[in-house]
Amino acid sequence: MDKNKVVSMEEALNAIKDETCLMYGGFGGVGNPPSLIQGILDKGVKGLHLIGNDAGFPEIGIGRLFTAERVQTLITSHIGSNPIAGEQMNQGKIRVTFFPQGTLAEKIRAGGVGLGGILVDVGLGTIAAMEKMTTKVRGKEYIIEPALTGEVGIVYAKQGDAYGNLVFDKSARNFNPMVAMASNLTIAEVEEIVPTGELDPEGIITPGIFVNYVVQSEGVNWPWHWET
Amino acid sequence: MDKNKVVSMEEALNAIKDETCLMYGGFGGVGNPPSLIQGILDKGVKGLHLIGNDAGFPEIGIGRLFTAERVQTLITSHIGSNPIAGEQMNQGKIRVTFFPQGTLAEKIRAGGVGLGGILVDVGLGTIAAMEKMTTKVRGKEYIIEPALTGEVGIVYAKQGDAYGNLVFDKSARNFNPMVAMASNLTIAEVEEIVPTGELDPEGIITPGIFVNYVVQSEGVNWPWHWET
Amino acid sequence: MALGDVERQRIARRAALEIKEGMTVNLGIGIPTLVADYIPAEQSVMFHAENGILGVGPSPETGKEDENLCNAGGFPVTLIPGASYFDSTLAFGMIRRGLIDLTILGALEVSEKGDLANWIVPGKKVPGMGGAIDLAQKSRRVIVLMNHTDGKGRPKIVSTCSLPLTAPRCVHLIITERAVIEVQEDGLALKEVLSPYSLQEVVKATGAPLMY
Amino acid sequence: MALGDVERQRIARRAALEIKEGMTVNLGIGIPTLVADYIPAEQSVMFHAENGILGVGPSPETGKEDENLCNAGGFPVTLIPGASYFDSTLAFGMIRRGLIDLTILGALEVSEKGDLANWIVPGKKVPGMGGAIDLAQKSRRVIVLMNHTDGKGRPKIVSTCSLPLTAPRCVHLIITERAVIEVQEDGLALKEVLSPYSLQEVVKATGAPLMY
Questions:
Q1: Is CATH 3.90.1150.10 what the domain over D5-211 is classified as, yes or no?
Q2: What domains are there in chain B, each with its CATH number?
Q3: Which of A115, A119, A167 is closest, CB to CB, to B116?
Q4: D168-193 burial by CB neighbour count: b if 16+ within 10 A, else e?
Q5: Tens digit of pLDDT for each residue in A84-108?
Q6: What's this model's pTM, rounded to 2 decimal places?
Q7: Between chain B and chain C, how many beta carbons pairs sit less than 8 Å apart?
């Protein structure tokens, strides 16, 4: 399969416009795609609707989009590591919807594999289940959680080939495989682009069928909080 | 982690008794655990409730349990390759419930990851959706499919360590990773048991936390239909 | 009546023309499996097998089969560069997500609306739907390869299916030993009549109006 | 008032005694993270990090950190033999499936029934529940490590939580700088009073009846 999905950063960024619903991989900054985030900042895109595990840190990963005021809404599990996002939420500048982390991961996966949603009991008996639709299965109550999809998904992979097959790096895998499946258009930022056929077919985490564009990463361009 | 889950075939088979609800990995015989199936036959267990993708072939894989009349009920996607299972179904000797293959895979996965079920639209508008509970999400109708779990799950892996970490072989992966997660007790039949720490942490498909017993395989003991 | 090998191969060869550069294709068992043999070597196509392979290659030489590298029909295959293995949830995730460009499968009946019936024969044992509903309902394009008539010479292309449906309104093209028929908004369009059959033989053996 | 480093370490050391051979353990951020330092080297424990690691090892030496090998708190870690990486659905699949033997986390309030409140302070910004609900609700055993009282000296162990719950009836053991308290069917059982505190000081600082 020679379909070549490797494109320039500029071409990939054409898909991301003002108010795009953008889903991103990463957990506490680890696994957020650094060059795509830089590209979004440089392009001047604003009013984004974001979906992802957390808001990173103010100067790390996806958090940089909050600091630069490019975000309109956020669907996430927590923003505790990003006080700037917290402040914007409190001031009504961004609207934030929270889900338990495991539920969020499954909602995104459900979108990625074409399910309508999932039944989950996490959060029952708490305000996290307030105003949720529930149903009983074999006498037990579950929350009905609809699937989530994005217009554009951005992920960060260690290696990828021209077909879009991806391998992730250690704990930077996290939400990336689900996000890679769950958007109408997926852009993979890859540290090392390898010839098609070089990745072990057993070790490919995201098959290229889910990926539309592959862009070369320039690597993480922020200091980590544990470094400072 | 030195917890040693490697046990003898005899010890592992203690978990499988008459009328046990037994979930199995494999697709058309490929990935069915041959030595565990032989052990079940030799032990004389009967009246089993099975859950798995298909019924194999009469002399291949899980199909051997039908030929030896050890099966009471079956939840599956098709039994087209096993006319003996078909005959038993027609004669009322076994009760068979069918689900679309992708739905069955997701029902088992849902059980494996502790979800109550999934919402899926495959089969809507056909008799496969008859008498199914449905719900609307964002105006679209979906079938509510409850999760499936088994009492004992049996899987066939290429490599495994004493903690139960598993790696599968090519298209023999199929339903095995989901089945490994979805039972109260999981027995992994492994072609090669390797020292703990030898498997690449990036390449482990089933983390050992899901596995209770590891048994040494003696390999496939049937001729394949394409060989004959 | 059953199709001879020549007719089966001819149907497969005709079906292969429907596969375009860059497509992701799932081939059902039976005649659809034969289609792969007629894809030009220079054309890059990703064959999807719902047992967990993307990038299925040709059959291996005799003696070089790998028992754990089989297609969904259980026959040994090989891989092409860029191929990957995955579990059945991901295999069907690709299908449900609408990423299969083309599925080629067999049928018992197809209606003029494109309704497909291929898993239940009333009064006969039902061996289950397998992955047929997933594939028929969710693929971007569905092509049916089948005998134009059943064992008793009755049309398998009908106004309304008498058998329970696998999926409603999913078939785009029908290829038989007699004809190539497209399912259009307003009915069935006869695109090709295959020698040695005449137009009249095709029309007579078809249980729904044909536009031509 | 905030706990000093000596008290934090003492709580962590005491909590480490609750970790038994062969357990799978998830440590929350804050004091719980310190617990790992007090596990005897010969004890085999699998530490689970909900960002996708099973088999977390000690912190790496300075300069040997790997930016892509971090725990859920975002700090560099290492692996032990038998460890594996996986995505977040599998990380939480393990949790929901009930395979985490023990979760150790912090709290704002714990009730005498074992209700846990640790994610919402009314009137303050709510930064989200993260994975706390999943872990608190689904772990086989939940141990809370916290200051016995809040910043104004008010009890954090109460008859009924005033804050919205993270999970009802989930806490099994509470360890503070003053005491070790077990949540039992019939109420809170004071198991240990930690020096230099007196029994009376513990009782007075606890907002629910203690059995002792």
A1: no
A2: 9-115+148-216 (3.40.1080.10)
A3: A119
A4: bebbbbbbbbbbbbbbeeeebebeeb
A5: 999 999 999 999 999 999 999 999 9
A6: 0.97
A7: 143
